[in-house]
Specification:
The complex is a heterodimer of chains A (111) and B (115). Chain A is an all-beta fold and 111 residues long. Chain A has no helices and eleven strands. In chain A, strand 4 and strand 5 form a beta hairpin. Chain A is globular, with a radius of gyration of 13 Å. In chain B, strands 2, 4, 5, 6, 9, 10 and 11 form a seven-stranded mixed beta sheet that branches. In chain B, 0% of the residues lie in helices and 50% in strands. With 115 residues, chain B is an all-beta fold. The chains are: A mainly beta (111), B mainly beta (115). The interface between A and B is medium-sized, with 25 and 27 residues.
């Protein structure tokens, strides 16, 4: 059973701080990794994807991948109350393209 | 910006009834997916569809479920005899080319309530 693990939180950070969200995965052969944001009652929305070891930056978001440790993280700089949501880590299932999601980490950014 | 649409937004049905959930994927996309999310739980893959046939399905997608692309735009999920445990949000997603690096775009979801 291929697993994607996330701390459910809630992770609470003050406005303007850096939020750090972590994800581990069990399938050593995984090649692509996705971070989705999901507001309560809404559908997942892609924030970032990462395929190579190291960091990938997009605006206030940085994804970090370490395949040797089977670990992917998402940093949110200058956190805003509007960033309060559940962040889902997703890894392709098997050899196809269907996504295996983690349970998500709930982030609360307090003013 | 193109988006995936789903209808209805909320469906209430009696246990044992059949429901059809509808999705209109992004127009030039070739791969289509159904996922579900039971309240408070993770998003779970149900089925993927390409070139008018199922390309992958999960253990959840049993004989109770079927998918169809009846015309050039709609993609449907049929649940033949609904059970209480089918109550969930059902998300349709579409993807342009079906590569592991490709982005899946999710529709807003249909909330299915089985009474």
């Amino acid at each position: 059973q291929k697993e994607v693990e996330q701390n459910s939180g809630p992770l609470s950070v003050p406005e303007g701080a850096i939020a750090s969200l972590n994800c581990t995965y069990s399938d050593r052969g995984s090649q692509s990794f996705f971070w989705y944001r999901q507001y309560s009652g809404k559908s997942p929305e892609l924030i970032m994807s990462i395929y190579s070891n190291g960091d990938k930056e997009d605006g206030r978001f940085t994804a970090q991948l370490n395949k040797a440790s089977q670990y992917v993280s998402l940093l949110i700089r200058d956190s805003q109350p509007s960033d309060s949501a559940t962040y889902l880590c997703a890894v392709p299932l098997n050899s196809g393209y269907a996504l295996n999601f983690g349970k998500g980490t709930s982030l609360l950014v307090t003013p | 910006e193109p988006e995936v649409t789903q209808t209805p937004s909320h469906q209430v049905t009696q246990m044992g009834q059949e429901v059809i959930l509808r999705c209109v994927p992004i127009s030039n996309h070739l791969y289509f997916y159904w996922y579900r999310q039971i309240l408070g739980q993770k998003v779970e893959f149900l089925v993927s569809f390409y070139n008018n046939e199922i390309s992958e399905k999960s253990e959840i997608f049993d004989d109770q479920f079927s998918v169809e692309r009846p015309d050039g735009s709609n993609f449907t999920l049929k649940i033949r005899s609904t059970k209480l445990e089918d109550s969930a949000m059902y998300f349709c997603a579409s993807e342009a080319a079906g590569a592991s690096t490709d982005t899946q775009y999710f529709g807003p979801g249909t909330r299915l309530t089985v009474l």
